[in-house]
Structure formats: C-alpha cells, structure tokens
Amino acid sequence: MLTAMTPIVLVIARMVLRGVLPYPDLLRRARVRSRARDLATRTPWPQDETTATGLDFAQLALLRLLWLQRETRRAVRIRQREAAALLARTSMETCILGLWCLHNPAAASKVRTSAIKTAPAMLTFLSSTGLIPDTLIRQAVRALGEPEMLPDVRSMAAQIDAKTSATLTIHLYDQAYRPASQYFTHATSSSLLRHVTHERRRITRPANSWVRRAPVRLADACVGLLAGGVANQVTEPTDLFLRYAEGHAGRVLPPLLATIGKGMARKLNVAGVVHMLRKSHEVRAYLSRTGPEDAPVEREARLRDLYDTLIARLDLDLPPEAIQPIIDHFIATVLAEWDTEPSAPNGKVANTAGVLTDPGGHARLGQ
User: Residue 303: what pLDDT?
Assistant: First the structure.
C-alpha cells in the first residue's frame, strides 16, 4: 500500500509468521533444561529458612519454571487451550519474581514476610468452623513478624530492566502477560466477549484469542531468561540461555494481534484485496503528479477516502472515535514522507512498499 502503510504491514506480517510457524529446537531445549536443572539444584535448601538468599528463591523459581514449561507443552499438545494460556501466564509471573529476587538485595526477606500477610485468610476456615477463635489465629500470625506486600508484577519487571539495562522483561510483560490476564485469567469484558461470535450468537466454547504455539513460546522464553539470570549470578556461561530466551520471545504473538488477524482473515477476500490495491495505486499516481502546494485539501481527501474504505472493509468492531486518531496519524505520515522524499539519492527511488530500492531491485527497510 502507500508509503507509511506497507512497512507496518510487513512488520505485522513478519510477527505473525514468526508466531505461527514451527520453530524446531528439541536438542537445544534439552540442553537448556539440563543445564538449568543443574543450576537450580546444585545446593540444598538452607536448614534455616531465614538465611535463604535471593539466589535461593530464584533457583526455586527456576525449578518451578521447568515444571511449568513441561506442563504448558503438554496442555498445548492435547489442545487444552485455556490451561496452556494460564500456565504460560504463571510462567511469566514466576520468571519475573525469580529475576526480581536476583536483583533486589531485600527480596528474600520480602518474599518470606509477604506470606505472613496471607496467613490469616488461609486459616479463616479454622475460625469459621469454630475450631480456633479468629483472635487466636491473628495473635499467632503476629508472632511470625510484620507482614509485607510484594511489588506488583509490572513494578518488578520495571525494576529488573532498570538493573540490567535491558528491555526483554518489560517486552514480554506488555506483549503477553498483561493481554493473557485480560483474555484468560480475569473476569473482564475481553474474556466474557470471547463467548460472543461475530454474528452476535452466544456460545459455550470461547473463541481462541491466542495462536496455538504462543503459550509454549512464552514458557520457553521465561525458562531461558531466568536461567540466564541465575547463571550470571553464579558466574556461569549465559550465551545458551540468552539465545534461547531471545529466540522464543521474538516468536510470542500478542493475543490482540492474533484476535485481530483472525477477524481480518474472515472479512477480507481476494476481490477486496485487489480492489484496495487498485485504489492504492490510483492514489499513489495522483500524489506523484502533485506537490505539497497543489490542492492540499484534495490530496488529504483522497488519502482519507482510501483509509476509510480499508477500515470499512475490515469491519472492525471499534467505535469511530477510537479509529479516527489512527487514520489521522497515517494520513499525516504519508503526506509528510511523500513530500520530503519523492525520490531518494544515489539512484534509489521510493516505492509503494515504503522501502528504498536500489537499481538492482534489492530492498532494505528503513532503520
């Protein structure tokens, strides 16, 4: 499509293909799991739990991650979609907690004392049955120490990336953990509307809001990420873990993109695509004949008509006020790029894909 549109389409297409295509790594996964297990079990748990360090808790988190990774794969294999999504989200939370324990000196103490806060609620059944008075339960819990609340998962992720000067943890949180919470874990509008079809029928089996392989990719990335953190803490090589984490993290397709993509695939057809390509070519030809000073109102009107037609064909279930700012942004970007780069130096010309093409036809995406 037009200058600013196709790079976005290419990026999204690349994300989708990486997210849905197989990524065979059986041998590497076996090596990662074996080395990660060694890292997590090389020392026994301290006799006195109060002496446990952040590394000790991170190693426990790594052991739990290895188990969750296996369970997530099993759930995907037997097509338990909801279970796989919930297990993958738990993997992400466990990974973030483990990394936070590695990088926060006071983490071990906070993790221990945070359990005190939940103790009264967990023992409520004793008082409700009349076995032990509620006041006695609270008195016993107070003897354990002052309760402390752990930071929320988002804050932990931000602290981890700030300590490591990285962005992968926040990336996975925003791309997978938060959407998975909305679609699968919590009772939200997003999770409830999965039981409504595009024809407005109510159904028992919810729509699948994630691609099949995404949960295992997320669980795999979490194992590599935390194992790399533990390895770094004990001065062991981290390359294997980090390559494994990055390879799988880059293939986690966000649930929202999967949902929109499935909806678009149902609504677009060959005739519609051909029509949009023809209309895009006509608008491009018109823009190539005009300059910034020529009929600015008509230039914008033609672009707006193109994008309005595209949105109408997609039939997105969104209010116009939500779509309009995005259309305005694309129009402003297209006009600005078209006016400033009608042609490129060194014999390279701007094409409809929004990339620069050299005389030999080789394309390179802009950085």
Answer: 79
> What does the block give as tokens for 272?
């519609």
Burial of 266 (0-12, 13-18, 19+ CB in 10 A): exposed
* SS3 track for 20-60: HCCCCCHHHHHHHHHHHHHHHHCCCCCCCHHHCCHHHHHHH
In whole angstroms, give the CA distance from residue 125 to residue 86: 27
Tell me which residues of the chain have a pLDDT lower than 70: 1-13, 116-131, 134, 136-147, 260-270, 272-273, 276, 291-294, 311-323, 339-367
Task: Specify whether the CB–CB gap between 247 and 23 falls below 8 A.
Answer: yes
DSSP helix/strand/coil, 293: coil
Residue 31: how many CA atoms within 13 Å on its side-chain side?
Answer: 11
User: For the chain, how long is the longest CA-to-CA vector?
Assistant: 87
By C-alpha distance, which of 366, 296, 347, 290 is closest to 3? Answer: 366
- The CA-CA-CA angle for residues 232, 233, 239, to 5°, reads 10
**Three-class DSSP labels, 164-198:** HCCCHHHHHHHHHHHHHHHHHHCCCHHHHHHHECC
Q: State the DSSP H helix or E strand holding residue 349, giving kind and residue range, or none if neither.
A: strand 349-350
Q: What are phi and psi of 333, to 5 degrees?
A: -65, -45
Sheet with 349-350, side-by-side order of all strands: 349-350, 356-357, 363-364
Structural domain boundaries of the chain?
Answer: 24-250, 264-359
pTM of the predicted protein model:
0.73
110, 111, 220 from 105: Cα distances, Å = 10, 11, 27
Phi-psi region of 222 (alpha: psi -120 to 50; beta: other; left: phi over 0): alpha
User: Which amino acid does the sequence have at 31?
Assistant: R
